[in-house]
Amino acid sequence: MFEQMFDHRGVSASAVEPSVVAQLRDRMAAMQGGPTRLPVPTHPTLSPLLQLRAGGSYGVDSASLALALMAGASAAGEWVAVVGWPDLGVQAALDLGVDLARTVLVPDPAEHWLEATAALVDVVKLVVLRPRGRVDAKAAGVLDARLRKRSAVLVVWGEWPRCEARLTTEATRWSGLDQGAGRLRDRRARLAVRRGSAPPRQADLWFPGTDEPLAPMEPVRPAERVRSSPVRLESVDGRGAREVG
Fold first, then answer.
1. pLDDT in tens, 27-44
2. What is the mean pLDDT of the chain?
3. If you write DSSP's letter for every residue of 38-100 in order, what string do you get?
4. What domains can be seen in the chain, in order of their start residue?
5. What span, in angstroms and rounded, lies between the C-alpha atoms of 238 and 21?
6. What is the mean predicted confidence (pLDDT) over 134-159?
7. What gap in Å lies between CA 98 and CA 77, rounded to an integer?
8. Which pLDDT does position 126 carry in this prediction?
9. Coil, strand, or helix at residue 176?
């Protein structure tokens, strides 16, 4: 009977779904007493590109990406927190699906940012941190250990020495201007996820400035490649961005 159960000669590795393999690894880690890396709810538009896992830290380079990663866990009913972000765009957070009733905000912890972040990791599923200045490896290691112990996730807007993966904006193009007049409303962005020295994974997404949800885009043809924006603009307050220059 056991020989039949574990006989793998007729099964190829390619026939096993990656999700099944991930679940089996998580169960094995739990049985062996090791930390589990269970998936954490991720925004459905971003999850094919980056799946958040408990105990991990992830870097982003913009406010909109930080909010998008926070939105997945929040919309699923998890408590989330924001540390060191005094000008958080409340309307932008709502538009992406963040439940503000289940969000803890520590806008300016000053020199106590490490203690504040570590305390929040103990009680919420996901913490967004905007650190001031350079963070050393020792401080990052303290939070890494706490994240693994509490099965929480850290999203860092800025530089971080121990990121499991970094989600960045490669290029962006805004819409809404008409012959040089009007307001910037929506933008199309090419995102890239980098893990160590592996080649980046890329995807094109639509970031609407209206009530429409964040959405993936069809693959672009060579003649439609996204142009890099000459001016870095970020709309996080829901009022749109004005034309500059």
1. 555 444 444 579 999 998
2. 76
3. -B----TTTTTT---BTT-EEEESSHHHHHHHHHHHHHTT--EEEES-TT--HHHHHHHT--G
4. 57-165 (3.40.50.300)
5. 41
6. 93
7. 10
8. 98
9. strand
**Pairing of β 215-216 and β 201-207:** antiparallel
Segment 163-196, tens digit of pLDDT:
999 999 887 776 655 545 444 456 677 889 999 8
- The one-letter amino acid code at 220 reads V
Which position has the token pair 């993936």?
216
Closest to 205 (Cα-Cα) out of 99, 130, 96: 96
* Nearest residue to 89 (alpha-carbon basis) of 75, 111, 71: 71
Residues 98-111 pLDDT 10s: 999 999 999 999 99
Residues 6+ apart with CB under 8 A from 231: 244, 245
